[in-house]
Task: structure prediction
Amino acid sequence: MAWGDLDAAQVYGASLLHGTRVRFRVLQDDDLVDLVRWWGEPEWAVLQQIVVRPRPQGPVADMFRSWSANEHGGGVGFSVVDRASDALVGHVTLFGGVLPTRAATLAVMIGSEHVGQGYGTDAVRVLTHYGFAEMGLNRIEIRVHAFNERARRAYRGAGYGEEGVRREAVFHDGVFHDEVIMAALAREWRLPA
Result:
């Protein structure tokens, strides 16, 4: 959208990293304690990670620092905080969004004590808007284990559609599980009111 004046640009900038429930901010060192803890909880790791494999705190903290460095145009990472209380509730990242494809993958982690409160859906909406409006992406995809129906419902609620299935792409509990590919395209996606 073309801006007619300075005020319109500033309104856009002021709202860019805010949703109805969450806002994004730069990763702070204090965030790492909770992020590392959430990443290592096996009952939640099984929903997000290819292999449940506890790792030392240092490498996991470095992973979040790397995701949140925001040094390259093809990816970003933010801490997710509750708008009302400013409490950390999770982390989001977009990665792989480079020319010529301008397609990125979105990943979201909401802390175990904050799941089911609408933070994930709002965070996905805000990051999707950021990816399309500020990074110039054309496509954003999310990969989710087929058995994680709660996440699939949240992604649908954020405007993503199911495109396909990677059959038996995930291995947990001695069984291969399907992985669902969900995506949004810039020309089809609109920021929910």
